[in-house]
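Let us practice reading a record.
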Amino acid sequence: MRRRGLVLAAVLALVALSGCTSLLGPGEPDPQQLNESADYDWDSSVNASITLEKNASVHVYGTENRSELQVYKRDALGQESHLEIRALQYRYPNGTVVTADHSALSVTQTRERTILDVPNETAGQVAFTAPRQGKRYSTPVFVEGATNFTLPPGARVGVPLLSQVNPPAGERSVTDNRMTLTYENVTAQTIRVRYYLQRDLLIFGSVFGGGIVLAIGGSVYYWRQIQSLKRKREETAIDIDTDGDDFGDDGPPPGMR
């Protein structure tokens, strides 16, 4: 028993040291990932800008009157965990952009948060990317206020069965085949979007139209079969006339007269 306990303790220690458990915390962010290159749209007219790419989400947030920004993600059960970020950059009010290796920026991680320490400027902006997949996306609202939410190329919302936006956007616009949802003032805790690609709408329309054609064709075929059976019954005299006037004309059956 003692030997088994020592072996179990050794395994747990190795797992903890390898970062595969949260016993010692999530570990430090990867400096190479934080210093990856990226081009951001520094739109200072909004408080937050989120752009969805095929396998990543691109975030730009205003840091007015902030010295830090805490970012995280929620799973399907509502459990929170730190967000793996890449390509961290900060833009000063004068337009100067610095990357993660600059002394003015620092990143720390806990099990539930990724904490971005930024210069305490009055109108700076911080930007980063994070991994994502699929046609559903949700993010906690890290910065309230005016927000632009841009979908991937060719993606759309609007058909209720194929898409959903919560909270509803005040305005939708399309530029260069990309739809942007505009919020004048986001105060919700989370933004959730489910979108479809334009080719999905064509496929859905084709399937739906084909289903209608098949339904109509089946109804017509069924109606014709019924009419054919009626004609056959009439031809073979199986169709008995049940009119009351025809009964009793011939008198009682033979032997009872």
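A brief commentary: Confidence is low (pLDDT under 50) at residues 15-24.
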